[in-house]
Design a protein that fits this description.
With 135 residues, this protein is α+β, with helices and mostly antiparallel strands. The protein contains one helix and seven strands. The protein has a six-stranded antiparallel barrel.
Length: 135
């Protein structure tokens, strides 16, 4: 009988932090700064306090798994965030490379990220309230 080895199966794992979808209308500017000082623009698909899924806006940006860089995140409602990160994995989505990243910031960067996440949650609440407003 053929089958997948039982010892290789894993139970589903819960994320340590919930992810928040980042909608285009939130007007978040994301710049990825490489250690060399060369940067490129990207956009978030989703973000959490511990990491994100982001895509480069052009096909020029190639980062390898395991490499590090810094995100510079500009959102009008909070101070600019500088967050170092590690590439966990990459894939192509359309013509552009996308990356799963884990943040590796210090306490100041982590607090700034928490402020950003809280602001994004408020934006989602505003949108929900607008969509479901009463009459």
């Amino acid at each position: 009988k053929l089958g997948f080895p039982q010892e290789a199966l894993q139970s589903p794992q819960k994320r340590t932090a919930p992810r928040i979808q980042v909608l285009p209308e939130f007007n978040i500017k994301v710049e990825v700064m490489r250690p060399s000082g060369i940067s490129f623009d990207a956009r978030f698909n989703d973000i959490s306090i511990g990491g994100a899924f982001l895509c480069a806006l052009k096909d020029e940006a190639l980062l390898t798994d395991g490499s590090s860089a810094t995100l510079i995140i500009t959102f009008p409602k909070v101070p600019q965030v500088h967050m170092p990160f590690l590439i966990l994995g990459s894939l192509k989505k359309g013509d552009c490379p996308c990356y799963r990243v884990r943040f590796k910031g210090n306490s100041t960067a982590n607090q700034a990220m928490k402020t950003l996440i809280d602001a994004l949650v408020q934006e989602h609440k505003k949108k929900r309230d607008w969509l479901f407003r009463k009459g």
